[in-house]
Amino acid sequence: MDNTMPILLVPGLVSSPRIFSPVVPALWRFGPVTIANHIRDDNMGAIARRILAEAPPRFALAGHSMGGYIAFEILRQAPARVAKLALINTQGRPDTAEATTRRHGMIARARSGEYRAVLDELFLGFVHPLRLQDAVLRQLVYDMGDDVGPEAFIRQQIAVIGRPDSRPSLAWIKCPTLVLSGDQDNTIPNSLSMEMANGIPDAKLKILPNCGHLPQVEQPQATADALVEWLRS
Prior knowledge:
Elements: E1 7-10, H1 24-27, E2 33-35, H2 44-54, E3 59-64, H3 66-77, E4 82-88, H4 97-111, H5 115-126, H6 135-161, E5 177-182, H7 190-199, E6 204-208, H8 215-218, H9 220-232
Parallel strand pairs: 1-2, 1-3, 3-4, 4-5, 5-6
């Protein structure tokens, strides 16, 4: 009897399938793995609709950072299709005024040819402070930035700015849920992961040590282990 479960992974802002590469080998034993394309639309509703149109009928859903915002929208549109949920270094809150102002600045810089400088700025918040000199991780951010490109990056930022507040719907989530974060995430503090875990019935919270905003590549084994445990739950 086939008990496999399709797995849908949604990358974050200016991230591509590369971000999940270190953990996919541990996941594919549980079912076919799909990396969602989230770069074609500039609002959360359209992004989720397009992903759902291309997704299996029912799946385990893991969203990282912006991918978590998309996961919430997928749940709003098609809750019965989500068998399990993993929220990785993300939050349920809408954008703050300060964050929106910063995003508009990055959009303007990307439009003016400063896209690489924007990636450098983002990198500072993406990794654990001890990894700031990690040339491999910095190159990964550059490579993913090239995968996405400045035009799609702008679309993503517009979508993130316009996202709704997902906190009121946390209590409606009934599927097995993992909330995963790093102990020093300087982009989305893990206090916001704790907030989500407290709001979702029976959610499991996992905070990885020595980890920033990119656990799949900063702590791949610990991240894979947490996701395997989630898939087995």
